[in-house]
TrEMBL record:
Organism lineage string: Eukaryota, Fungi, Dikarya, Ascomycota, Pezizomycotina
Xref: SMART domains: ANK
InterPro entries xrefs: Ankyrin_rpt, Ankyrin_rpt-contain_sf, Multifunctional_ANK_Repeat
Name of the protein in its database record: Ankyrin repeat-containing domain protein
Record field: compositional bias (Low complexity): 236-251, 275-286, 320-354, 376-385, 413-423
Alphabetic keyword roster: ANK repeat, Repeat
Ranges of Pro residues composition bias in the record: 287-311, 363-375
ANK repeats (start-end): 538-570, 571-603, 604-636, 638-670, 708-740, 741-773, 774-806, 807-835, 879-911, 950-982, 983-1015, 1051-1083, 1084-1116, 1166-1198
């Protein structure tokens, strides 16, 4: 190993850390993602965990590389293992770069809307970024193990065996958790496997190193060596191992104190623009954002828990406020730096931006109690406010998280905009009497806005402008519906179309309207600033911005001054649509008073009442109904009404109101889904009750199925919504209603393994004896999935264990065949042990089925000695297969010795004459072949040359399919090489025909005869040439050079002629290189050149001519090369295309180079010229080529026919025209 390689790896990875931090920071600084918690946490991990560790390793190795390489423990392989681990970290960084670069590239060149689209793209990448971040956390543990070993080898005072042991245990636990992680795709899964192997190698080397150092104590430590400054500034003393951090979860930043953090600059610093990727951007403070609701699943912990065992004090402490500049809260206030729980406080030594490390030999002290945040100073607040104002033009993107998509999009936040607005200067339209909408009091604490109730709904702060406008655009394209057959795929919306980057940016009106800056709006209007009537991103007017966020005063002011409030944006949403969807009832009322159309639908047919009902905005629904909007509006596609969509989303108050207003719950969607059906299938029991009872309820839809035959009870039972099932049953739902496949609610509940629902249905009288169209009972349905608890319930309620379906399958057979369900099989055997050998209609027993499927647990359960009667291990299917042959055929190696140990006969012959050895050899299962050949049983030894009904031996089968390891095994056990099947093929023939060069080589070494011929005269050599297996041809010629021209098939073709006639240019070139004779003709005088020309293989004709092929030589019946080429026609020979015109053109070109070489009018023995041949084939292109070359159109063959006669006789009109254009001779009077 190169001593410099680890140092070079560390240096490269440090650069990768910087690049990753810059890329992620560039995205954050552009205010792109709503997923900034993952990005900020990634920055923290790279900068605070990996980078210091890499810097320490880099410094130690550069200063002590030769010493470390020659250390007395180096033989344990920790440095090569570390080198592999560093390479693995590099792979992870490359994956991160591949995810970040496209977003950074879009950010650096995008407009306002382009940044919004970039945020959407990042939303699709964020889960992948979280996976890579979790992988880096695990890899950091490996780096720390390596650093501790380096420090121990160089005598660092705090590098101890205890510290190394703690790191090894932590890394081992992380590796175990990593094995259960989900990987992004196939390539990433392979990377994950390699990562696990690399970590295992590193852990093994570290454990060996630990054991050696424990038994061979190191000599007295040398004085600490100064390795240089760590990343970011100066350092005193020598490098120290970073201290283990508290347990940290995958997708979440480390814990911190104070309010949620934002990436703002310090108050004293002016705002800095985003730098292009590759330049140092402004990164802001280092504290990441708090975890969000869409944080990915936790990652494996890399650190031991803080109690009861204290962590070793061998790492750095978190930098103090004086080192990092503190953390920034929402208000711009600085808070104290966060320390890991259970660790010691960091020494607050301000030295620029660098770190000062402390070395404590004592266990870490408990952390101090967090002090309450200090109130910001006036200067600080002013600076923060100034910063906020200066960046007010930046969009606040907060796009929805679609990582988990419901049937219908979840409701967006409702606005807390004021409910009333100043009186308009112009008289609005007179509205119907509407109950006043009273706005809730403004909360005193910002956090209270998330829990305050309004009309039964959780209220929330107004959505950001990007949330409102961005969501409106997304909703225009993405409205999944209940029971939809089309699944959402985020990639469908990532079309990489950069045209959106050219959309106009927002005007000052848009920005002020969405931020609620009324004074700025007035200033812009009064000053006559342009942009009032300009559309911004998504084609929206400033009134869209105000309406979506709920700034009613601004909205009315804009309307009064002529702003457009009725036009729709790019996806058809008007300001009224936006206000309805985002829950701004005051804005809705205002727009209605000014005459906005309450029925105007978007491009995808969403009306304001549909959007409000879908998102649960009761006050808006009331307002629209009282304004005269149809409460049963069916404008939206598939006939979804407001009542149906509200029921599907669980908005009880909206459902109750619509029912009170007389909404028709009998209206179903195009798929037949009723409100009660969708409420039941989504588990909204109270909505189901509201739809069925009370003054407005109606039970007429209780048992009405959708188009697929699913009743409300069926839907609720399928999803295990027990409360909804109970309500439906209380109102008399039909327990025995069936869908189109005759499945009842009990069937689906049993199939999905819902014991609570099954128990409830049984208690209400559901029948356990109903059968589906396939004849399967609920017991058979749950046996298929192996749900033991449901099986027990059904059996206790009288289900018949012996009931068979249409295929003759008992529940026991179904459980054995469908999965490895040993507990289900054991339970069914307790009730009916006599069914253990009951076959299906095809003769398959439970044991044979389990062996065929590889269900080893079921095989053991069926062969248990306690069973009475025992499973019949010799039972055969209708094809004559035993359980042993079934397992051998499918390659289930672990089952073979179990069956043999229980007395399976390895010599049992099936209906095709095969034994288990034939099946295993034919399918390439070398382990099973070995097991069958080496396991001693009570039966006669296996005949290794056993022939089946086709007279094929195991060696034949394995050689034919190229199973090299099986061929090797069989030959080692004395299989006969020269056996033949009825066609006369030997195993060597079979391998040559199929091109298995490795098998051919092995058979030749074991004595196979390359000159043997099949009954039709074909030798292995000619068979290989006929199929274009050039490598096999070369192997055979290496063994027997005389085969080159001597081996012929029954028609007398040599290998060269065969390959030329079949179109294998590679094989032809190899045979020519070997010196094959070009003039050797077959029994009819055809040379290889004749054979290639006859098929129209221009490339082969050219190769043979250039090698000296006889262009003028005739066949026994007088055919010339050009005559044969002209009649080649069109089409294919195998996989090769004919090229008659190209071949003729090439041959005619020879005449121009060597006069008289090719005669265009030369007839064959019966007077056919090349033009006759081409005309007869209807090849108009070749006809024209020959006519241009001087072919005589009036030539007659032996029967007196001209080329024109032949073309006319076969209906080739185009050929006739070409001949007429070439001369009238072809139409001469006979």
């Amino acid at each position: 190993m190169d001593p410099l390689s680890i140092g070079a790896h560390c240096g490269g990875l440090k650069a990768a850390c910087d690049e990753t931090v810059h890329a992620a920071s560039a995205i954050l600084n552009a205010a792109v993602p709503d997923q900034d918690a993952v990005l900020s946490s990634l920055i923290h991990d790279v900068r605070q965990l990996l980078l210091p560790t890499l810097h320490g390793m880099h410094a130690v190795w550069n200063a002590n590389g030769p010493t470390l390489m020659t250390h007395r423990a180096a033989g344990f392989g920790m440095w090569p293992a570390m080198q592999q681990h560093l390479a693995s970290v590099g792979v992870t960084f490359r994956g991160l770069k591949g995810q970040l670069d496209p977003v950074v590239e879009s950010v650096t060149r995008s407009s306002f809307f382009g940044v919004n689209k970039s945020a959407w793209k990042l939303g699709m990448r964020i889960r992948t970024l979280a996976v890579y971040r979790g992988r880096l956390l695990v890899q950091d543990g490996g780096l720390r193990v390596g650093l501790v070993m380096m420090q121990m080898c160089t005598g660092a005072p705090n590098a101890s065996l205890a510290a190394l042991n703690a790191e090894i245990q932590s890394l081992t636990a992380a590796q175990a958790s990593l094995r259960n992680e989900e990987w992004v795709g196939t390539a990433e899964e392979e990377e994950g496997k390699q990562l696990n192997l690399t970590l295992g190698s590193l852990i093994g080397a570290a454990q060996g190193f630990h054991s050696f150092m424990a038994s061979n104590p190191a000599p007295a430590p040398v004085p600490p060596q100064q390795y240089g400054a760590p990343y970011g500034g100066q350092q005193q003393g020598h490098w120290q191992q970073p201290q283990p951090h508290p347990q940290q979860h995958y997708g979440q930043p480390p814990p911190h104190q104070g309010q949620p953090q934002q990436y703002h600059p310090q108050p004293a610093q002016p705002p800095q623009p985003t730098q292009p990727y590759g330049q140092q951007p402004y990164l802001g403070p280092q504290q990441p954002h708090p975890p969000t609701s869409h944080s990915p699943h936790p990652a494996p912990s890399l650190r031991p828990p803080p109690s009861p065992q204290p962590w070793p004090s061998s790492g750095y402490q978190a930098p103090s406020q004086s080192q990092t500049g503190g953390y920034q809260s929402y208000s711009g206030q600085q808070t104290s730096s966060q320390q890991p729980s259970g660790g010691q406080a960091a020494p607050a030594q301000a030295q620029g931006s660098g770190y000062t490390m402390s070395h404590s030999a004592f266990p870490p002290a408990p952390p101090p109690a967090p002090a309450p945040p200090a109130a910001p100073s006036a200067a600080s607040s002013a600076a923060s406010a100034e910063y906020t104002m200066s960046y007010s033009a930046l969009p606040d993107f907060g796009l929805p998280d679609f990582s988990v998509v419901p049937d219908v999009p979840a409701s967006p936040p409702r606005s807390t905009a004021p409910a009333s607005a100043p009186a308009p200067a112009v008289t609005p339209a007179v509205a119907p009497a509407v109950a006043p909408v009273v706005a809730p009091p403004a909360p005193t604490d910002p956090a209270q806005t998330w829990i305050q109730e309004e009309d039964g709904h959780g209220s929330a702060p107004p959505p950001s402008y990007a949330q409102a406008t961005g969501m409106m655009a997304v909703l225009g394209n993405f409205i999944p519906q209940e029971d939809s057959e089309e699944e959402y795929n985020a990639n469908d919306y990532d079309d990489d179309d950069d045209d959106d980057d050219d959309c106009p940016p927002p005007t000052a009106y848009h920005i002020a309207a969405r931020e609620g800056r009324f004074d700025e709006i007035k200033r812009l209007v009064e000053s006559g600033a342009p942009g009032l009537h300009v559309t911004g991103e998504h084609g929206q007017h400033p009134t869209h911005s105000a309406a979506c966020v709920g700034h009613v005063d601004i909205l009315e002011y804009l309307i009064q001054h002529g702003a457009d409030y009725k036009s729709s944006n790019n996806v058809g949403f008007t300001p009224l649509n936006g206000a309805a969807i985002w829950g701004s009832p005051a804005a809705v009322r205002l727009l209605l008073r000014y005459g906005a159309d309450p029925n105007q639908a978007s491009v995808d047919k969403q009306t304001p009442i549909y959007g409000a009902a879908k998102h649960g905005h009761l006050e808006t629904v009331k307002m629209l109904v009282e304004w005269g909007v149809d409460k049963d509006d069916r404008t939206y596609g598939d006939d979804w009404t407001p009542l149906c969509v509200a029921a599907s989303q669980g908005h009880l108050d909206v459902v109750q109101y619509l029912l009170h207003q007389g909404a028709d719950q009998g209206i179903r969607t195009e798929k037949g889904v009723s409100p009660v059906r969708t409420a039941a299938s989504n588990g909204y029991a109270e909505i189901v009750r509201a739809l069925l009872q009370g003054p407005w309820g109606n039970t007429r839809m209780l048992n009405v199925p959708c188009n697929s035959g699913h009743t409300p009870l069926y839907g609720a039972a399928w999803e295990n919504h027990v409360d909804a099932v109970r309500v439906l049953l209380d109102f008399g739902a039909d327990l025995h209603a069936m869908n189109e496949n005759k499945w009842t609610a009990l069937h689906v509940a049993a199939f999905n393994g819902h014991p609570a629902t099954v128990s409830l249905l049984l208690s209400r009288g559901a029948s356990v004896h109903t059968r589906s169209t396939t004849g399967r009972s609920p017991l058979g349905s749950t046996a298929q999935e192996g749900h033991v608890e449901v099986l027990r319930l059904l059996l206790q309620h009288g289900a018949v264990a012996s009931q068979t379906d249409n295929d003759g399958e008992t529940p026991l057979y179904t459980a054995a065949n469908s999965g490895d369900h040993p507990d289900a099989v054991a339970l069914l055997l307790q009730y009916r042990p006599d069914l253990i050998n009951t076959p299906t209609n095809n003769g398959w027993t439970p044991l044979a089925a389990a062996a065929f499927k590889g269900h080893i647990g079921v095989v053991r359960a069926l062969l248990a000695p306690s069973n009475n009667p025992r499973a019949d291990i010799h039972a055969r299917t209708k094809f004559g297969r035993t359980a042993l042959e079934a397992a051998a055929h499918e390659g289930h190696t672990a089952i073979i010795p179990i069956l043999l140990a229980h007395g399976a006969n390895p010599n049992a012959i099936d209906n095709d004459g095969d034994i288990a050895l034939n099946s295993a050899a034919s399918n390439g299962h070398a382990d099973i072949v070995s097991c069958l050949l080496t396991t001693r049983t009570a039966y006669a030894p296996i005949n290794i040359n056993h022939t089946n009904n086709a007279k094929s031996t195991p060696l034949h089968a394995a050689a034919s399919k190229g199973h090299l390891s099986v061929v090797q095994l069989l030959l080692n056990h004395s299989a006969t090489v020269a056996t033949r099947i009825p066609s006369g093929f030997t195993p060597l023939h079979s391998a040559c025909v199929n091109g298995h060069a490795a098998v051919v080589s092995l058979l030749l070494r074991r004595g196979a005869d390359p000159t043997s011929r099949a009954t039709d005269g074909w030798a292995p050599f000619t068979s290989a040439a006929s199929n274009g297996h050039t490598d096999v041809v070369s192997l055979l010629l290496d063994q027997r050079p005389a085969l080159l021209d001597s081996a012929r098939n029954a028609a007398g073709w040599t290998a060269l002629g065969i390959a030329a006639r079949q179109g294998w240019i590679g094989t032809v070139q190899e045979l020519l290189r070997r010196g094959a004779d070009l003039r050797v003709a077959n029994d009819k005088g055809f040379t290889p050149l004749h054979g290639a020309a006859e098929r129209g293989f221009r490339a082969i004709v050219e190769a043979l001519v250039l090698a000296g092929g006889p262009v003028t030589q005739r066949t026994s019946t007088g055919w010339t090369v050009i005559n044969l080429a002209a009649g080649a026609g069109k089409g294919k020979v195998g996989e090769h295309d004919k090229d008659a015109v190209g071949t003729v053109r090439y041959l005619l070109g020879l005449d121009r180079g060597r006069y008289g070489l090719v005669d265009v009018n030369s007839p064959e023995g019966q007077g056919w010229t090349p033009l006759h041949s081409a005309a007869y084939e209807g090849d108009v292109e070749t006809v024209r080529e020959l006519v241009r070359a001087g072919a005589w159109t009036g030539a007659r063959n032996g029967k007196g026919s001209t080329p024109g006669d032949l073309a006319r006789g076969k209906g080739f009109n185009e050929v006739e025209v070409a001949l007429l254009e070439g001369g009238m001779g072809g139409m001469a009077v006979r």
